[in-house]
Every structure is written in C-alpha cells, then in structure tokens.
Design a protein that fits this description.
two-stranded antiparallel sheet; 274 residues; mainly beta
Length: 274
C-alpha cells in the first residue's frame, strides 16, 4: 500500500459517509448470490466499518448506529451488476433534510473558512445509498458500494481531477478487498425518497435541536463508471449498474437547527499499489 495525504473538509452527514468508506479495507469475497446472513448479522458487519470513523468525531456516527435496530426488520437485498456480473447485495438508504432557508455557512462554522457576506448555501448533500456483501457478522463487509448524493439525479462526471485534489461532497466509491479502491469518474444515480407511516427513534445530531425520524423507501436507479484511485495514471474502468429498485432506509428530518463548529480533519488515505 502507498499513502496519499489529503486534507478533506468533512462535515455532518458527508463526514459520516466518506469517512466510513475511506476507513474500510476488508478481505474480499467472490460471492455473487444472496447472502446467508440475516439482517441483524449483516448490519453488525456494516457497523464494524462505522467504528473505524470514530476518530472523525462525526456528529452522525451515533445516530446511524442507533438506526440499525429500526431498519433490521426491513433490510432489503437488491440486484446490482458489477462489470457484467450480477450480484445480490444488502441495501440501505439514509436521508437528512433541513428546514427551508437553512444555510450551511451559519449551521457549520469552519474557523479556517469564514463565510462570505450574504452567501447562503444549502446544507451538504443529504442522501446516501449503501450496498454491501458480508460473509460474517464479526467481519467488515467484503464488497461495498457507497454513494453520496441528493434526491433527484446526482451526476458523478468529472468530480476528481487528481488524487491530491480529492473532493468528496458528491461521490461514489467502490471497495473490494485490500487492494481494490475505486472512485466515480462518470455516470449518475436517480433517487426518490418517500417517508412511510412508520416512525423511528434515533439520537439527534449535534446540529439539530429537534427532528423527526421515519422509515422511508428509496427508489434508486443508475449507472456509474469508476476509476482506480491511485497516483499512477490508469485507463482501467469498472462499471456498476443499479436497475431500478427500492430499498428501505432512515429519513431524519431536522425541524430546528443549532450551529456547530467543525474540527479540521487531516486524513491519510491508503491507496492500492500498482
């Protein structure tokens, strides 16, 4: 493995999503069929990866762990095509929404990057889709697709120009084994989220004074092309297609916010050696 040191500005939901994937490197598996694990075991496997981001002190880490007990009875498995091979993977959707008019500049205070006067940027992209295969409850996932985007169509074209200029506010990442780390180069995912009548109870994130939580359905469809993340140029591409399918997940709707001050993160990214 080689090391690439990049400064990532991570906050809230995006910190959770990207930190999880950047920290997960598990032994691979060639499984393509439905997993024999039950939902609780599959989520326990996923939670091992979440434990790897504890150093980020993400305000979302505790809420997501707490959501597992709520989603376990509804956890879905869906079909995904990876480079022409059909695979069955567990699926989980995550959604965070804010009151109209919420500004990221006043919600997430970054001492190193004070906001420009009069600028109001909507908060970070608030949707993530996690797809994974696991072989045991006591081991992290063997294979994972992690997509951070938003409701509607999220485009992943031309997001990364070089590993030293890594931007992870909108990203799709594919992990398989210790030496296979891929990042989105092009493509898109279309997502529609609908809350069900089933409520859930999870801890509030640090930036919320109050919020509601609902089990939700995530209607997903997309095709994304990935390139291997390395400081050595490569023309290799990996293509993933998600036929239109629905998975369950958690929708936390923040109803009242409070500002938080963000720490500065310095991450060391393990990358494959060619």
């Amino acid at each position: 493995m080689i090391e690439l040191r990049s400064r990532l500005r991570l906050s809230g939901f995006t910190a959770l999503c990207t930190g999880l994937l950047l920290s997960l490197f598990a032994c691979g598996s060639d499984s393509t069929g439905p997993s024999s694990l039950d939902s609780n075991a599959a989520l326990q496997s996923l939670s091992l990866g979440l434990g790897a981001i504890s150093d980020l002190e993400s305000p979302e880490a505790a809420p997501l762990n707490a959501s597992f007990s709520a989603i376990a009875p509804l956890l879905d498995q869906i079909n995904v095509t990876i480079d022409g091979t059909s695979r069955t993977m567990f699926g989980l959707g995550l959604r965070e929404s804010f009151p109209a008019g919420t500004c990221a500049e006043t919600l997430f205070i970054d001492p190193l990057f004070p906001p420009e006067p009069g600028v109001c940027t909507p908060p970070f992209l608030g949707l993530a889709l996690v797809l994974w295969q696991s072989h045991a409850a006591n081991a992290p996932p063997d294979r994972m697709i992690f997509i951070v985007g938003d409701v509607g169509t999220s485009s992943f074209d031309n997001l990364i120009t070089s590993p030293s200029d890594l931007v992870l506010s909108l990203v799709a990442i594919y992990l398989e084994g210790q030496d296979s780390f891929w990042i989105s180069a092009s493509g898109a995912l279309t997502s529609q989220v609908a809350a069900t009548s089933q409520s859930c109870s999870i801890p509030l994130p640090a930036f919320a004074k109050s919020a509601t939580c609902s089990i939700a359905t995530f209607d997903e469809e997309g095709a994304i092309s990935f390139e291997q993340l390395s400081d050595v140029p490569s023309t290799a591409r990996l293509n993933i297609t998600i036929p239109r399918q629905t998975v369950h997940g958690i929708w936390q709707a923040v109803t009242e916010t409070q500002p938080i001050t963000l720490p500065t993160y310095q991450r060391t990214l393990p990358l494959p050696r060619d």
